[in-house]
Design goal:
Length: about 600
């Protein structure tokens, strides 16, 4: 009755009541709109976070696989294996059985026609069988150069047990393929398998099921060890099939991975994230329980509903709360991802430069800390013939995608170095490998060199990289800057340039970040100042030339300006005779240990 009397008292009272009601409805509507917007943004952030974590984990998984392949590669380079007859090869592998115990499915040696010549342990049922039809053997014939191959699940283990086969080429003295050495990992042997132990060490992401699936959809690994060897259900098979969840996500092109909200086999809502494992046809699939992921958002929803029911929540409060919680979610996830990216990038560069007798190798590398849009990667590798491989590349991309490309590029450079005879051939082969994986917004520029320390002969091939500088007693000569960026055109042919470095002469490689350093006001550092600095340097050693350039960089720009982009400088200097006599060089094994190599049979 009171409200009725109030409503009927006067026209002014009715207008006031209507205004109050409309204001309350407006506030409630604004709050509801802001909450729904916040919820949608939070869902998108959770899905993108899982995509990036899965992609990073796939890169780390490839690193673990390469560690397992090191033992096979070391044996494959042994003369007893690539020069020996069948009986000698069997004795050699039998003597190395302790080293090969990590392959719980055994080790198989095939000749260049695909016939089985030796096994550890002995498997007389397959001796002399023709395995040339196996995909892992055919891949060695097709790939140029032959590279490490990781097979899908195959029923070729002892007693036809399902296994994964890791294969490396056995190359002769002229780098011709004389055989294939394969290590087998049994599926489902979680307690004793070095293969599964390396996967578990990664602490794979996801609060639900986690799978590693091969190209045919068979499960290589699942976190519960219940479905290993099975074929995964249709919605998570390969992208080529029309009902594939990864294809529907539409984000796998270019090696970007994908994620989407879906349901698992039990009907629970999850975020399914997918990432290709570099250099294999495997795919990492992680599932995160949607309810657990959205729990913080749901707690906010409960508070919102209670306040809205009371009609006392102002729209501004909703906006501030939504913004704060979204910032916390982004901050926590971003900090975790940035930390993992930093760890992976640190593993992509050598711990130190090699020390060669008669040479001084200088290096400076600094990673950007303020969201750079380009990242550097450099590498050294001592080859069995005594040459030193030196590579320097810059990838124009950000975050997970950049690290994925850097990891793929480093693996491609190293595999090609063991096969190719020239620097131009390496870039040509790597370009064909990278081209299908490169997204439209990515770009890769690189320099690649082979150095013969004995003669001083240097082969240099460039893919649109900064022109190297020849330093000859203070006189600088700029080599040609040629070649297109890697991954732009399939089957592009790269050529190399040769130069003979005499004692006292040097060559300097530097990344685009050096030229792009800019103070708060004024022009960039630029190539002219770089040449002037090096010409005026009285240093005759590689590290001295590198230090001279870096010191001038720090005087040219403020410290904060140097943190916006990656900076890398490498100098290879041939020592004068009297300096070389006073400065003993390392042995080959010292250099291998410095570069992280494990081969003891070069």
């Amino acid at each position: 009755m009171g409200l009725k009397r109030f409503w009927g008292q006067s026209r002014g009272g009715r207008i006031l009541a209507a205004v109050i009601l409309l204001a309350m409805l407006g506030l409630i509507g604004t709050a509801a709109y802001n909450y729904l917007s916040y919820r949608k943004a939070a869902e998108e952030l959770i899905i993108e976070r899982d995509r990036q974590v899965a992609l990073l984990t796939a890169v780390r998984l490839r690193d673990e696989l390469d560690k397992l392949a090191d033992e096979l590669q070391a044996l494959a380079r042994s003369q007893s294996l690539y020069l020996g007859l069948t009986d000698r090869q069997r004795l050699f592998l039998r003597g190395a059985s302790q080293r090969l115990s990590l392959f719980d499915g055994g080790v198989i040696l095939m000749d260049n026609s695909g016939r089985v010549r030796a096994t550890v342990p002995e498997r007389w049922d397959i001796m002399s069988d023709d395995w040339s039809g196996q995909e892992f053997f055919k891949s060695m014939l097709v790939a140029q150069p032959p590279a490490i191959h990781f097979s899908p699940v195959l029923d070729v283990g002892p007693g036809d047990a399902p296994v994964v086969v890791m294969s490396v080429p056995v190359l002769g003295e002229n780098k011709e393929m004389v055989g294939v050495l394969s290590g087998l990992f049994r599926l489902g042997q979680s307690q004793v398998s070095a293969f599964y132990a390396s996967i578990v060490r990664l602490r794979l992401a996801g609060s639900g099921d986690t799978y590693i699936v091969d190209g045919s959809g068979r499960i290589i690994y699942d976190a519960g060890y219940q479905r290993t060897g099975d074929t995964i259900n249709g919605e998570l098979v390969r992208p080529a099939q029309p009902k594939d969840a990864v294809a529907q996500a539409g984000t796998l092109a270019g090696g970007q991975g994908g994620a989407r909200r879906t349901q698992d086999a039990e009907g629970h809502e999850v975020v399914a994230a997918f990432a290709p494992v570099p250099g294999t046809d495997w795919m990492l699939v992680t599932e995160t329980d949607w309810t657990a992921a959205m729990a913080p958002v749901q707690r906010s929803a409960t508070g919102f509903i209670a306040l809205l029911a009371l009609g006392i929540i102002p729209a501004l409060g909703v906006m501030l709360l939504a913004r704060g919680q979204r910032s916390d979610l982004v901050g926590r996830d971003q900090a975790t991802i940035v930390g993992q990216l930093k760890q992976v990038r640190q593993r992509l560069v050598p711990a130190q430069a090699p020390l060669l007798k008669g040479w001084d190798v200088g290096v400076y590398h600094r990673s950007a800390t303020n969201g750079a849009v380009a990242h550097d990667m450099y590498d050294f590798m001592l080859l069995p013939d005594g040459r030193l491989m030196t590579s320097l590349a810059t990838v124009a991309d950000k975050g997970i995608t950049a690290v994925h490309l850097l990891s793929t590029l480093r693996a491609a450079f190293r595999m090609a170095a063991c096969r190719a005879h020239s620097a131009g051939q390496v870039l040509t082969e790597c370009n064909n490998l990278i081209c299908p994986e490169l997204g439209p917004e990515s770009a890769i520029t690189s320099i690649y060199a082979f150095l013969d320390p004995e003669s001083g002969l240097l082969q240099v091939a460039s893919a649109g990289f900064c022109a190297p500088l020849l330093w000859r007693g203070g006189d600088l000569e700029e080599m040609r800057e040629e070649g297109t960026f890697l991954g732009q055109t399939l089957d592009h042919k790269y050529v190399h340039e040769e130069v003979l470095l005499a004692p006292g002469e040097s060559i300097i490689f530097y990344s685009p970040g050096v030229l792009g350093v800019r103070p708060e006001t004024g022009d960039t550092f630029g190539p002219e100042r770089a040449r002037t600095t090096l010409s005026g340097s009285g240093e005759a050693t590689g590290q001295g030339l590198v230090d001279a350039l870096c010191v001038d960089l720090t005087t040219f720009a403020e410290k904060d300006s140097l943190q916006h982009q990656d900076i890398t400088v490498i100098a290879l200097s041939r020592s004068n005779a009297h300096l070389a006599a006073d400065k003993p060089g390392r042995t080959l094994m010292d250099n291998l240990r410095a570069l992280g190599e494990t081969d003891t049979d070069l």
